Amino acid sequence: MERTTLVQHVRQQERMNPGATGEFTSLMNEIMVASKIVSLEVNKAGIGEDILGLTGKINVQGEEVQKLDEFADMTFTKIIGQSETVCAITSEELEYPVIIPPDRNPGKYIFMMDPLDGSSNIDVNVGIGTIFSIYRKISKGIKVTDEDLLQRGDQQIAAGYVIYGSSTMFVYTSGKGVHGFTLDPALGEFFLSHPNIKIPKQGSTYSINEGNTEIWCEEQKNFIQYLKEKDPATNRPYRLRYIGTLVSDFHRTLLKGGIFMYPRDTTNKNGKLRFAFEAAPLGFIIKDAGGRASTGEKNILDIVPTEIHQRVPLYIGSTHDVDLAEKYLATPSLHVEKKPATPLTGKEKPATQEG
Ligand code: AHG
Ligand code: MN
Ligand code: MN
Predict the structure, then answer these.
(1) Ligand index nearest the alpha carbon of residue 69
(2) Protein residue whose Cα sits closest to atom 14 of ligand 1
(3) Domains identified in the chain and CATH numbers
(4) N or C: which end of the chain has fewer CB within 10 A?
(5) Which pTM was predicted?
């Protein structure tokens, strides 16, 4: 049976671009090599290797850095940094961009990444991943400037993610369809397993951390309430699925349809997820798969970031479902002030039988 490897696929796609130099294929190959190394480490985690747990450091996001976060960041930064295909690397784990110096033969691409997504799930053997995004250097001259590092979402030339789950999958788009590859661990090769992925126009699953309900706006609460009501004619109630690893929740949404949401709330005024390392790459992928990504008010891909670690609210998935979320968020809710329930102290007398 004809099996297409990831590099063969990328080369075929790049050949469709007039004037292609092969540099993009070479960059994708390096990303693939780094993902195989991280996959090996993730799958060994817990067996002898001291790769689980915390480093004791706090990153620029104010989050505790796990050993695998650091390992993944170092692996991708080192391999991509010496690939002679990029002139800069930005990472969720690095406060400042890595600029490739002239003596290291910098290339024409900018590489952005969330090296290890789903860190809170590392030690409990739940799917985790890597998310990446590739832009072209657009500023004149050899220096890398903010013009290169803060590009509008739709300026991406490619985006993808790796899921280190029950199998290791590599999903990417360079604007010509979304394609999934599964790692054959025996051969150490990614083979095409999900060609031309398209997301259903409407789904029946919603994905959100309902533990934050109390800190959402009323309009957000109304939308979730709506999805829970029983109405077969409109495919409701939706099922709730929430893994807590964006890459895994996104991958399920991409394949089955529905909507993933990480809204803004009173704690995270701009939401929790990062534009450059999570929302923009996944927004580029979902668009090519026939879906949508929004902040709840505007398209993710229309955003021009003002700083590298900018956060945005994220609504991503089937077009019908994201459109509906935007409608709910734009419909001012009747702010019925509900009396907050008096929290139980646990000292209450048990209700008498007949009580
Ligand atoms: P990261 O591990 O790269 O910091 O990303 C974690 C993100 C994302 O993976 C997930 O969707 C979200 O955090 C979960 O947040 P909550 O635990 O607040 O639900
Ligand atoms: Mn992440
Ligand atoms: Mn991360």
Answers:
(1) 3
(2) 244
(3) 6-194 (3.30.540.10), 205-338 (3.40.190.80)
(4) N
(5) 0.92
